[in-house]
Design a protein that fits this description.
The protein is of the alpha+beta class. The protein folds into 3 domains: about 1-160, BirA Bifunctional Protein, domain 2 (2-Layer Sandwich), CATH 3.30.930.30; about 170-270, no CATH class; about 280-355, no CATH class. Helix content is about 40%, strand content about 15%. It contains 16 helices and 13 strands. A hairpin with a 5-residue loop joins strand 7 (about 230-235) and strand 8 (about 240-245). Helix 3 (about 80-95) packs antiparallel against helix 4 (about 135-150). The longest helix is centred in the N-terminal third of the chain and has 16 residues, at about 135-150.
Length: about 425
């Protein structure tokens, strides 16, 4: 489960956004807490009055609207009753259990998620301090609820559906079956909420995965000079479909000025993913003695990393962008280092593919590591079995002592008796 806590200045805007989803059949009112009467009989204005009654108690607080989203993994199969229990428990744990709030279940994405609209002004007129609430209260509550309800943990979401955002349906937009503004709003806000990007170009590369583009207008136009921004739905050829929408007309106002604030935050937020990005790229090159451009792209796609080579009208490749749809992070090649720029990557690519010979051993090692089995050392392929010889036998025999040849003894000459006596007398 992923929880996002956002402060705002307009509870009216939040209610309009969710109620329009209900009208479009893309959401339903799941829960209403702190409303005395039957909420289903309430009009939009009556719902709004319940919140405004409290905000009027403290006019000094301008940022009084709270918009919370609880996002669940695609593997989490949750019915409405369980969603209600999780939401009630979450709001209680972050200190908003006594506040009035409305919960909407949205069905416009590939995963289950709910939107919660509330305010931070209590019945006594005091303000609920939300500074640091994300890490101090929301994050512990999220982890506790994951364990209690057996939810897929946020840190394990890489094993699930990576994108989680439905691309704009081009055919429905083209035939007027889906209002362009609503389709663009859903995707743009989802991307801003979940992805970490640090420039308009990076933001655009992500959006184009979902058939959306952000355009500043041509050079020397009034829109470019005033830092304007419009969003359009595009087809697979990059051609505009439907009517463009001004950024200022979209809920949460994703204007260029507001996006730049997001850029600065994301530069820090994405730093932790830089080294894993480089490691994933090097791992692909390590497995191949030669690798083509298409195979390079396909191999990274298996890891949910989308590679986009940027090419100008003359066919010259001037840049490369890597989008990690698993960790919702994007980097330009130059941001990772010179070795990962478009020029450096293209120099490392080849026309054909050739796997390195030890790839079978690498696969065995990874399999052993994954299963926790001990490595069995096999005989090295290039060592031949020694043939049996009689070298050892001969060597042993060579150093055994041999019998010394017998030397015939010399016969001593017998001395006569007279000579023997003379010698004895002389002594």
């Amino acid at each position: 489960m992923v929880a996002r806590f956002v402060n705002g200045k307009s509870i009216r805007g939040m209610l309009h956004y969710n109620e329009n989803k209900v009208i479009a059949g893309e959401a339903s009112l799941l829960l209403a807490s702190g409303f005395a009467a039957d909420i289903n009989s309430f009009s939009l204005e009556q719902k709004l009055q319940r919140f405004e009654h409290l905000t009027m108690l403290n006019n000094r607080v301008k940022t009084n609207a709270i918009h919370i989203t609880l996002n669940f993994d695609g593997q989490d199969k949750l019915n409405n009753e369980v969603l209600q229990q999780i939401t009630l428990s979450y709001m209680e744990r972050i200190g908003f259990g006594d506040q009035p709030y409305l919960v909407y279940k949205h069905t416009d994405a590939a995963h289950t998620h709910v939107h919660i609209a509330t305010i931070n002004i209590k019945a006594d007129g005091n303000r609920i301090d939300t500074h640091g609430i994300g890490w101090e209260l929301s994050e512990p509550a999220r982890m506790e609820l994951e364990k209690e309800y057996g939810l897929v943990q946020a840190k394990g979401r890489q094993n699930s559906n990576a994108l989680g955002i439905k691309p704009a349906d081009i055919e429905k937009v083209a035939y007027g079956k889906t209002p362009t503004k609503r389709a663009i709003t859903n995707i743009v806000n989802a991307v801003i909420d979940t992805y970490k990007f640090a420039s308009l170009a990076e933001f655009n590369v992500i959006l184009q995965q979902f058939n959306i583009t952000a355009d500043r207008g041509a050079e020397n136009t009034m829109m470019r000079q005033k830092n304007g921004l419009i969003y359009s739905i595009i087809n697979e050829k990059g051609e505009q479909v439907g009517i463009p929408i001004k950024a200022s007309a979209i809920y949460n106002k994703p204007t260029l000025a507001n996006l730049k604030k997001q850029f600065e935050k994301n530069i820090e937020r994405r730093k932790v993913y830089k080294e894993p990005f480089k490691k994933a790229i090097e791992e692909v090159f390590r497995r191949y003695a030669a690798i083509s451009k298409n195979t390079f792209i396909a191999e990274l796609q298996k890891q949910h990393i989308h590679v986009v080579f940027r090419v100008n009208d003359n066919g010259f490749t001037y840049g490369v962008t890597y989008i990690d749809n698993k960790n919702k992070t994007v980097f330009n090649g130059s941001d990772l280092g010179k070795s990962y720029s478009a020029k450096a990557i293209l120099e490392r690519l080849d026309i054909n593919d050739k796997l390195r010979e030890p790839v079978q051993q690498a696969q065995l090692k990874s399999k052993v590591k994954a299963t926790g089995q001990k490595t069995v050392h096999q005989p090295t392929a290039y060592l031949k079995q020694l043939e049996q010889t009689n070298y050892l036998k001969l060597a042993i025999a060579k150093y055994q002592p041999e019998a010394a040849p017998s030397i015939p003894r010399k016969k001593r000459k017998k001395k006569n008796k007279g000579q023997q006596q003379d010698q004895e007398l002389s002594l």
